[in-house]
């Protein structure tokens, strides 16, 4: 290695030498450089998936901590811990250890609540990430496989949630478990067999908490972890999608390199997500199991709701009509089967197959790396709004007893509102969304054709008042803009095209000299003020005015507004 | 001594790398690289990764007011993060040592009630301030560059050559011709797969053996007990009231399907009483007993509104009319709550006259058959 040190360009610092030693052994310089140079598009909506990833990391950390204290056993014990109201009560070891970790482990309650909040955030960010992917068309070829993996991960996240909140074996989670048992029983033909396989017999048995525990801490997280790895590998391999914009094509990614800009932001986000979960975990009480008491099949509390991500199934179950189907031979398909197994199964199947369905219907089999604005794909956007309305409506129906109680409405009326709403609201959402999409599209076209409304009212020599429009680009002899719509946001305000000078920096007091900024802006040709001196606006630039406006200029000409000419 | 030997990864000495070792090291000699500035090297490497830096907006001028201000902000954020982290440690370690005890008592409103909120507050603030500092750093102090990276479509060359290797291997194996091997492999795979799945059979239990879903601990002569284990006589209950009762067997009050509601009807309810077919004599005077387990999803139906004679299940709002044999009158439930035939034993306590004559709890596929 002595020769290395004397070669030209060889590192002279200790750190540099150590790096060479390291690379001599592992040959990581090239892949490292490739990673550091990877370009990430810069848009806030790309961070939703990251939030999901970070909450999963938090879940792994806090969950591992909780396993040190949790006893996944249904053995009956008598509580002797420090929470006085339950002392001497018979309960399962699972509930007992949950109370122990809440009251007798230093910081245990904090960790338990942190875990629960992170779980809620995990599912929520997955759903938001999914909506972003859906509405921007990021699932299109070649990303169908990652969409599919994502849907599977969502289902796993829900299963993680259900098995997780069942573990404490309190009255609320036990009630949920009873409903899970009933759902299993409702499956035609194999229902009772499936139930006996899962519960090792009739409800409730002595196995179920232990089985849910191993599924919750090993099976599901392991599968999830593997799928996350595949999800990210495919993402890196296929590179990010991006919104259309200047210089962005189907064959490139425009944005920041991983190091240092993107890494800084992403790490910052990790800490913020952790901070938010920690603050919620300490400050906002969640699932106070000691108030519910141990599970007892003969007891239930009113307003029994599951965590938010399962509430849509609770809602569909509440509003489904009492329709058992009796088959010849005295076989029955229970009413419960439809709003739970069938609704959930159908929803996730349609969701998983959506990229294939859309490809079939539109015949669009090309690869896409540029995203679409939701308004430009009104049918998909409206379908999404419809599905979302259906989902949110079911979710609200899951809390219909609470709504009835708080707003003093008849419970039966709430049930009927739920039943009618779930049928008529989604089509209404479809129609309204479709009109909104078309309206937004038309407005984009109008601005491209006629220019931005400046808000400047002029009086013509004839006495007519007109509003001056600012063309965005060159116009033809009728005063119509000639820019085509490119799928990117169209500037709608003068400020978007540099109509105003930039704000002077400083929060409480300016830290720049205003006059200096003014001069700087004049030099750059930005801001309305620069054009003020030579300007004389007399026409709206609309064709109705005889099409006399300017020959225009692109925003890239420094965004300098064009003066309509006389 | 040649320059090649100094390349990272080479072993040096006489054992020289083969001709396939090539790559950028052949394009740029160490001397050439040594003559380049760091910025140039950065952009050169980026170009090899398909990245072009289009535009760099430099960070604030070193020494400018803008920079000083940004540095102050970032420094404050990191310092605050450290302060809050230490506060977390102090609260965590100090409680019960030089601070009051953290163990919470239900009556207490002091330090122990604030212990968990303080942990959350300080950890939350510490973590968030780290994040805020990093974001401020990136936004205010780093140069903002716009880079563009090429996306590569699949390469035809790679496909053809990879395909050739794969097909070549398959061809050499002769599996296409040697049918006995492919068939025996398929047979072996099926067998092995089945074999490895078999242990899951340990999970299977026959739900129809002994009819566990259709029977409960209730039987002829079994007393009705309250949750505390005391028996009930007619007259113990007020008219219009409901009591949850359990079979007088060991662990009866913990069984999932045995919980029963004993209801004493008011006189006007007795007049309106219309039992279901075949249940005419199941009541005892003005007393009726129905299963507490909802026939919809198995929750305990607990909310009894005696004005309307309705029992409401709080899980999915099924409603049952106790004067009509507890048949469902609203909500998703399809079947009446099973009725328990009751009587009174020699000592004057309530007893069951038999088990329920139908399965209690949620409906299932072959419920009507057993």
TrEMBL record, chain A:
Single Gene Ontology MF annotation: metal ion binding
GO biological process: respiratory electron transport chain
Matches recorded under InterPro entries: Cyt_b/b6_C_sf, Cyt_b/b6_N, Cytb/b6-like_sf, Di-haem_cyt_TM
Residues annotated as domain Cytochrome b/b6 N-terminal region profile: 18-244
Annotated membrane topology: Multi-pass membrane protein
Region of interest called Disordered, as start-end residue ranges on this chain: 515-566
EC supergroup of this enzyme: translocase
Required cofactor(s): heme
Keywords associated with the record: Cell membrane, Electron transport, Heme, Iron, Membrane, Metal-binding, Respiratory chain, Translocase, Transmembrane, Transmembrane helix, Transport
Catalytic activity, as annotated: a quinol + 2 Fe(III)-[cytochrome c](out) = a quinone + 2 Fe(II)-[cytochrome c](out) + 2 H(+)(out)
Listed EC numbers: 7.1.1.8
Subcellular location(s) of the protein: Cell membrane
Transmembrane regions listed in the UniProt entry: 51-70, 116-135, 147-167, 179-200, 212-236, 266-286, 336-357, 377-396, 416-437
A Gene Ontology term for the protein's cellular component: plasma membrane
SUPFAM superfamilies in the cross-refs: a domain/subunit of cytochrome bc1 complex (Ubiquinol-cytochrome c reductase), Transmembrane di-heme cytochromes
Keyword Protein transport: no
UniProt-recorded name of the protein: Cytochrome bc1 complex cytochrome b subunit
Organism: Blastococcus mobilis
UniProtKB/TrEMBL annotation, chain B:
Compartmental location: Cell membrane
SUPFAM superfamilies reported in the protein's UniProt record: ISP domain
CDD domains per record: Rieske (cd03467)
Transmembrane stretches, start-end: 77-99, 111-137, 185-204
Transmembrane is among the record's keywords: yes
Domain Rieske residues, every copy: 285-351
Record keywords, A-Z: 2Fe-2S, Cell membrane, Disulfide bond, Electron transport, Iron, Iron-sulfur, Membrane, Metal-binding, Oxidoreductase, Respiratory chain, Transmembrane, Transmembrane helix, Transport
Main localization (coarse): membrane
Record's bilayer topology term: Multi-pass membrane protein
One annotated GO molecular function: metal ion binding
Matches recorded under PROSITE patterns: RIESKE
Gene Ontology CC terms, in alphabetical order: plasma membrane
InterPro entries: QcrA_N, Rieske_2Fe-2S, Rieske_2Fe-2S_sf, Rieske_Fe-S_prot
Region annotation Disordered: where it falls in the sequence: 1-31
Pfam families listed in its UniProt record: QcrA_N, Rieske
Chain's role: Iron-sulfur subunit of the cytochrome bc1 complex, an essential component of the respiratory electron transport chain required for ATP synthesis. The bc1 complex catalyzes the oxidation of menaquinol and the reduction of cytochrome c in the respiratory chain. The bc1 complex operates through a Q-cycle mechanism that couples electron transfer to generation of the proton gradient that drives ATP synthesis.
PANTHER family: CYTOCHROME B-C1 COMPLEX SUBUNIT RIESKE, MITOCHONDRIAL
Protein family per UniProt: Belongs to the Rieske iron-sulfur protein family.
Protein name: Cytochrome bc1 complex Rieske iron-sulfur subunit
Source species of the chain: Blastococcus mobilis
């Amino acid at each position: 290695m002595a020769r290395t040190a004397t070669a030209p360009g060889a590192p002279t610092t200790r750190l540099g030498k150590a790096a060479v030693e390291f690379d001599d052994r592992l040959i990581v310089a090239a892949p490292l450089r490739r990673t550091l140079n990877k370009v990430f598009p810069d848009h806030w909506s790309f961070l939703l998936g990251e939030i999901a990833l970070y909450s999963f990391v938090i879940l792994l950390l806090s969950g591992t901590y909780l396993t040190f204290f949790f006893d996944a056993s249904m053995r009956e014990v008598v509580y002797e811990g420090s929470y006085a109201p339950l002392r001497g009560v018979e309960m399962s070891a699972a509930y007992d250890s949950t109370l122990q970790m809440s009251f007798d482990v230093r910081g245990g309650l904090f960790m338990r609540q942190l875990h629960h909040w992170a779980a809620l955030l995990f599912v929520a960010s997955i759903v938001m990430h999914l909506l972003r992917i859906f509405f921007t068309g990021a699932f299109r070829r070649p990303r169908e496989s990652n969409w599919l993996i994502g849907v599977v991960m969502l289902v796993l996240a829900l299963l993680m949630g259900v098995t997780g909140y069942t573990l404490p074996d309190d009255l609320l989670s036990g009630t949920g478990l009873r409903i899970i048992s009933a759902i299993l029983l409702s499956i035609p033909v194999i229902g009772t067999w499936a139930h006996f396989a899962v519960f090792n017999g009739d409800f409730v048995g002595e196995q179920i908490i232990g089985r849910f525990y191993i599924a919750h801490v090993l099976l599901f997280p392991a599968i999830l972890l593997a799928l996350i790895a595949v999800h990210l590998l495919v993402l890196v391999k296929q590179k990010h999608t991006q919104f259309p914009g200047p210089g962005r094509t189907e064959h490139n990614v425009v944005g920041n390199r991983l190091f240092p800009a993107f890494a800084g932001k992403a790490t910052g986000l990790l800490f913020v997500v952790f901070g938010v979960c920690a603050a919620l975990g300490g400050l906002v009480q969640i699932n106070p199991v000691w108030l519910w008491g141990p599970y007892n099949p003969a007891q239930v509390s009113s307003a029994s709701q599951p965590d938010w991500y399962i509430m849509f199934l609770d809602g569909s179950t509440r509003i489904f009509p009492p329709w058992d189907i009796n088959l010849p031979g005295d076989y029955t398909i229970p009413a419960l089967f439809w709003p739970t197994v069938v609704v959930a199964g159908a929803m996730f199947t349609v969701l998983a197959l959506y990229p294939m369905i859309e490809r079939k219907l539109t015949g669009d089999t090309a690869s896409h790396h540029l995203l679409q604005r939701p308004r430009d794909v009104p049918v998909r956007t409206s379908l999404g709004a419809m599905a979302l309305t259906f989902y949110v409506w079911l979710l609200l129906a899951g809390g219909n007893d609470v709504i009835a109680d708080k707003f003093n409405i008849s419970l039966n009326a709430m049930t009927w509102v739920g039943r009618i709403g779930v049928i008529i609201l989604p089509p209404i959402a479809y129609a309204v969304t479709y009109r909104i999409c078309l309206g937004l599209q038309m407005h984009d076209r109008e601005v491209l054709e006629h220019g931005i409304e400046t808000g400047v009212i002029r009086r013509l020599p004839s006495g007519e008042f007109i509003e001056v429009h600012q063309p965005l680009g060159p116009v033809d002899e009728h005063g119509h803009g000639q820019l085509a719509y490119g799928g990117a946001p169209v500037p709608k305000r003068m400020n978007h095209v540099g109509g105003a000078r930039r704000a002077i920096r400083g929060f409480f007091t300016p830290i720049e000299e205003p006059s200096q900024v003014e001069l700087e802006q004049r030099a750059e040709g930005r801001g309305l003020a620069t054009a003020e001196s030579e300007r004389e606006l007399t026409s709206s630039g609309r064709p109705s005015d005889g099409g006399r406006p300017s020959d225009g200029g692109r925003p890239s000409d420094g965004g300098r507004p064009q003066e309509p000419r006389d | 001594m040649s320059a090649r030997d100094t390349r990272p990864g080479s072993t040096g000495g006489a054992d020289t790398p083969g001709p396939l070792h090539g790559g950028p090291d052949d394009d740029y000699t160490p001397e050439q690289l040594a003559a380049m500035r760091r910025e140039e090297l950065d952009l050169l490497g980026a170009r090899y990764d398909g990245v072009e830096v289009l535009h760099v907006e430099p960070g604030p001028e070193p020494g400018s007011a803008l920079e000083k201000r940004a540095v102050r902000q970032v420094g404050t954020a990191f310092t605050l993060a450290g302060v809050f982290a230490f506060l977390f440690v102090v609260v965590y370690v100090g409680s019960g040592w030089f601070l009051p005890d953290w163990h919470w008592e239900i009556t207490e409103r002091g330090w122990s009630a604030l212990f968990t909120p303080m942990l959350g507050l300080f950890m939350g603030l510490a973590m968030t301030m780290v994040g805020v500092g990093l974001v401020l750093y990136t936004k205010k102090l780093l140069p903002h560059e716009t880079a563009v990276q090429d996306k590569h479509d699949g390469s035809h060359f790679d496909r053809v050559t990879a395909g050739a290797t794969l097909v070549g291997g398959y061809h050499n194996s002769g599996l296409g011709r040697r049918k006995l091997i492919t068939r025996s492999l398929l047979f072996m795979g099926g067998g092995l797969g089945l074999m490895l799945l078999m242990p899951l059979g340990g999970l299977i239990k026959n739900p129809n053996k002994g009819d566990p879903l259709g029977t409960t601990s209730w039987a002829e002569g079994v007393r009705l007990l309250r949750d505390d284990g005391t028996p009930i006589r007619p007259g113990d209950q007020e008219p219009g009231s409901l009591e949850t009762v359990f079979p007088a067997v060991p662990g009866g009050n913990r069984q999932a399907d045995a919980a029963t509601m004993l209801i004493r009807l008011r006189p006007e309810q007795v007049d309106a009483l219309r039992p279901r077919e075949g249940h005419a004599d199941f009541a005892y005077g003005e007393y009726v007993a129905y299963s507490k387990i909802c026939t919809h999803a198995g929750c305990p139906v607990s909310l009894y509104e005696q004005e309307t004679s309705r029992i409401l299940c709080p899980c999915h709002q099924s409603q049952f009319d106790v004067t009509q044999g507890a048949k469902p009158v609203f909500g998703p439930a399809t079947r009446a709550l099973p009725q328990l035939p009751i009587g009174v034993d020699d000592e004057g306590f309530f007893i069951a006259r038999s088990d329920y004559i139908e399965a209690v709890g949620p409906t299932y596929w072959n419920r009507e058959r057993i």
